Amino acid sequence: MIQIIPAIDLIEGKCVRLTQGDYGQKKIYNENPLEVALQFEDAGLKRLHLVDLDGAKAKKVVNWKVLEKIASKTLLHVDFGGGVQSDDDLKIAFESGAKQVTGGSIAVKQPDLFEHWLKTYGGDRIILGADAKNEKIAVSGWEEGTSIWVYDFVEEYVAKGVKYTISTDVAKDGLLQGPSFDLYKNLQDKCPDLNIIASGGIAGIEDVEKLAEMNIYGVIIGKAIYENRISLSDLQRFSV
Description:
- 37% of the residues lie in helices and 29% in strands.
- It is built from eleven helices and 13 strands.
- The strands form two sheets. An eight-stranded parallel beta barrel has the order 1-4-5-6-7-11-12-13, surrounded by six helices. A three-stranded antiparallel beta sheet has the order 8-9-10.
- Helix 1 packs parallel to helix 3 (64-73).
- The active site is at residues 9, 131.
- Its EC number is 5.3.1.16.
- It is an enzyme of class 5 (isomerase).
- Keywords: Amino-acid biosynthesis, Cytoplasm, Histidine biosynthesis, Isomerase.
C-alpha cells in the first residue's frame, strides 16, 4: 500500500504553498501549521512532510519550533527538510522530533558530510532529496540548476546506503497537472530496491492510484489537498 504523505511548507511559521518553487508565487493556507497537522492526523493519516522554506533560503534550519510543536502534539511520523546544511542543523531537526531528515543541496555540495550522516544515522533516517529540472538535479530551493543527471546521482547514493529518496520534478510542482510518472519509472528501473517518494504535480486521486499501481513507495500531496482537489476522506482508504 502506497504511503500517503501530506505536506506542510513553512514560511514565517505559516502553512504556505509555492508554485514551481517560486517564493514570489506564495499562497498562505493557514497561519497555524499545527491545526493543519491535527486535521491530517484526525483523518487517519500517519505521516507528514514538513518543509522549512525559510531554511532552504537561509541555508540553515529556521522553523524548528514548528517542527517541535507538531512532533510533540501529534503522533505523525514527520520527515523534515529545508536548510539542513550542517551537523548542528541535523541535530536540531532530530532533537525537535523529526523521524527522518531530507538532505538535497547538501548531498550535491557537501557529499562527504552527507555520507557521514548516512553512516552515522543510517539509511532509514536520512532521506536523499533528488529534485530535478529536465532530469538534472536542482538545489537550494530549486533556485540553482546543475548538470548532474538525476538517475546517476541517485544510483551513486544508493550504492552508499541510501534507502529512501524524495524526488520532485520542479517543472510539475504546484501546477496540479499530474506528476512526472516517467521520472519515477526511470528511477525504479535504475534502482529497483529504492523506496521512491513521488512529489510534485499531484492533481487528483487518479494520480495517487496510478503511482500505487506502479508500486511507488510513497506520495507527497500538498496543493491538491489545500485546493480541495483531493479530500482527506479520499485518502483514508490508502491508510488502512
